[in-house]
Amino acid sequence: MANTAQARKRARQAVNQNAHNSSLRSEFRTAIKAVRKAIESGDKAAATQVFQSSISTIDCIADKKIVHKNKAARHKSRLNAALKALA
Predict the structure, then answer these.
(1) CATH architecture of the domain formed by 5-85
(2) What pLDDT digit, counting tens, does each position of 8-24 carry?
(3) Is the pLDDT of residue 87 over 80?
C-alpha cells in the first residue's frame, strides 16, 4: 500500500483511469467486430457505412494511446482489404 498522500491519490486515480482505458479498449474491439459482422453479411453498402464509423472510433482510441497507432493501422488495413474483397 502507498505510504504518502500523493502515492495514495495516484493509486486511487490509477483505478479510475484503468477502468476508463478498459472501456475504451472494449469499444475498440467492438468496433472491429461490428465491421467483421457487416462484411460477413455480404452487404457491401452497409459494411462500408459501418467501416467508416468504426475508423473514427479506432483512430480516436489510437490517438489517446490506449492501443498503439500501428495496431490501429493494421486493423484498419485488414478490415479495408476484407471490405474490398467483398466485391
Answers:
(1) Up-down Bundle (1.20)
(2) 999 999 999 999 999 99
(3) no
What cell numbers appear for 5 in the block?
A: 498522500
- 43 vs 48, 52, 56, 83, CA distance in Å? 9, 14, 21, 10
Give the three cell numbers for residue 74.
Answer: 493494421
Which of 15, 76, 86 lies closest to 51, judged by CA? 76
Q: How confident is the model at residue 55 (pLDDT cuts 50, 70, 90)?
A: very high
Q: Which runs of consecutive H residues, i.e. helices, occur in the chain?
A: 5-41, 44-63, 69-85
What are the residue boundaries of the structural domains of the chain, listed by start? 5-85
Is the pLDDT score of 86 beyond 90? no
What is the rounded average pLDDT of the residues 59-75? 97
Residues 6+ apart with CB under 8 A from 39: 47, 79, 82, 83, 86
Length of the chain in terms of residues written: 87
